[in-house]
Amino acid sequence: MANSIGIVKAQRAVFDTPLTFRSGAVLPCYELVYETYGTLNEDKSNAILICHALSGHHHVAGCYEDEPNNIGWWDNMVGPGKPINTDKFFVLGLNNLGGCHGSTGPSSINPETGEPFGASFPVITVEDWVESQARLADLLGIRRFAAVVGGSLGGMQALQWSLAFPERVAHVLAIASAPRLTAQNIAFNDVARNAILTDPDFHGGNYYQHGVVPTRGLRLARMLGHITYLSDDVMADKFGRNLRTEQYNYGYEVEFQIESYLRYQGDKFAAYFDANTYLLMTKALDYFDPAHLSGGNLNQAFSRAKAGFLVISFTTDWRFSPQRSREIIRPLLHNKRPVSYAEITSNHGHDSFLMEHPHYFDVVRAYLANVYHEVTA
Asked: Mean per-residue pLDDT for 71-78?
């Protein structure tokens, strides 16, 4: 791993102060799993928060001593000399509440019942995540982030930081994101959730007690989602109409290589991700709309923001298209916020934000170099 942060270790924070969710539900206590990279400076002004997307988690960069092949999901972006440079910044990544990678979520034990939360875990929103992230920052003594960075659903969290805690974030990097989902995106999420909800092994979300996993539903949900993360160009270049064998079998088993790929991705995902977490994450996507309480007026919603912004989109991303990014930019300009925008030519679709791309990385590197100059001025 060139310029990797190297060996890292997950940490755990325990919170005994109840957290009231946007829905009105209350979580009496909870835990957040997180990792940090780099060194926090004396006045704790060089911290960057990384917000993860739907299937992400706290393991952003580096690897574990006992799992050298378990490399962080954004290791190409975060590390010494990389665009998010850990020689300069203290980087924080966490697994959000409701997750299935160590933070309190549906598969965690409810202390009141001694059983997994399951379906009783509250529906969560981006606003709830940001509140819990702010509490973690408090615990670490970080009063203000130099930047909050995220792609996709992570970008929505970064935007929410600028609205919920305008004094606590200097810059926001919203990558391949949107100020709210389109009807088409909500529809995709609903179909994916229904694949899980109608799986006979789902048991109303309490499948843990039955010793089963709604594998079929989760597998289908991931297959559908994965299609939307790729571009038509990538699928054509990588798979085309290639068959696994040299002839048609005239049946319903796997024949095309794209079918084999999607089923492999679905099986792999279903083996480690929690179905209830998938439901929660997609609902958080659906509910995010800063303008909901402003009669749909994004100009008014973003009037609270005080940060500087870097917004990045990718040409072949049809799940969160460049048009969605421009919907972020317009209200920021209306409110006279400093905003930079880059539309990157890439054929990787929505997954582009995870890929190493020279232009994309140069934009992030240059922007954060200016952020670091502010920190050290």
From this structure: 97
| pLDDT value for 86 | 98
Overall residue count recorded for the chain in this entry: 377
Given 55, 103, 132, 152, the catalytic residue: 152
Select which of 108, 177, 317, 348 is catalytic.
317
Residue 95 has a pLDDT of 98
All domains in the chain, ordered by first residue: 11-180+289-376 (3.40.50.1820), 185-283 (1.10.1740.110)
Catalytic annotation present for 171: no
Q: What is the reported pLDDT for 366?
A: 98
Indicate yes or no: pTM above 0.70.
yes
Q: Was 337 annotated as part of a binding site?
A: no
Q: Is the pLDDT of residue 1 over 70?
A: no
350 is catalytic: yes
Q: Would you say 222 is a known binding-site residue?
A: yes
- State mean pLDDT over 325-330: 98
* 233 in active site: no
pLDDT tens profile 252-287? 999 999 999 999 999 999 999 999 999 999 999 999
**Of 58, 101, 171, 350, which one is the catalytic site residue?**
350
